[in-house]
Write a structure and sequence with these properties.
Radius of gyration: 18 Å
Number of helices: 9
Shape: elongated
Largest sheet: none
Order of helices and strands: HHHHHHHHH
Helix content: over 70%
Number of domains: 1
Strand content: under 5%
Structural class: mainly alpha
Distance between the termini: 21 Å
């Protein structure tokens, strides 16, 4: 909402970054959930993820990266997206919305970190989805590609921003 109200070329870049970053992040996060949801039932309880980082380290690291991106932690695409959204809001003087964005991001951080902490707790149940389900090679490759893309956009976003500018026909920024 902040970037849409800002309505400048910078805002268009911010919205595009946000949509791409959160598409990658939610696809990865829900990919993990679908891997853990099997024939025995859905992984819909927080206890289903307890110990995943110990028993399934690849899934634990990828899920951690996705959750940290959703929280807007630096070095992830989510951080860059939120940074540009806030920049668009500040540039247009939408201070109330920027403060609300920061406040809701802090609230969201609490919920995302709760899941991350659960991932790294010792497993309580040896038969939980976090310890039972196997990842296929194709599923693992997709999750690895999403995690790499997530970190690439977080560490080196300039290539993607230049692509957005060329598509828009703008040299703003």
């Amino acid at each position: 909402m902040v970037a849409f109200l800002a309505g400048k070329a910078y805002a268009l870049i911010a919205v595009t970054l946000y949509l791409v970053a959160y598409f990658i992040t939610t696809l990865g996060a829900f990919g993990i959930v679908s891997v853990l949801s099997g024939g025995e039932g859905d992984a819909d309880d927080l206890t289903h993820y307890q110990g995943m980082a110990w028993k399934k380290p690849f899934l634990g690291v990828v899920f951690t990266a996705m959750l940290l991106s959703l929280a807007g932690i630096p070095l992830t695409a989510g951080f860059i997206a939120k940074f540009y959204i806030m920049g668009a809001g500040v540039g247009s003087g939408l201070w109330t919305l920027v403060v609300m964005l920061v406040a809701t991001s802090a609230i969201g951080l609490f919920y995302y970190l709760r899941i991350v902490i659960t991932l790294y707790k010792p497993p309580a149940d040896e038969d939980s989805p976090a310890t039972r389900e196997r990842t296929t090679v194709a599923g693992g490759a997709v999750l690895a590609a999403l995690a790499a893309l997530l970190l690439w956009l977080g560490i080196y976003p300039s290539v993607f921003i230049e692509m957005i500018q060329k598509i828009m026909g703008s040299t703003f920024i």
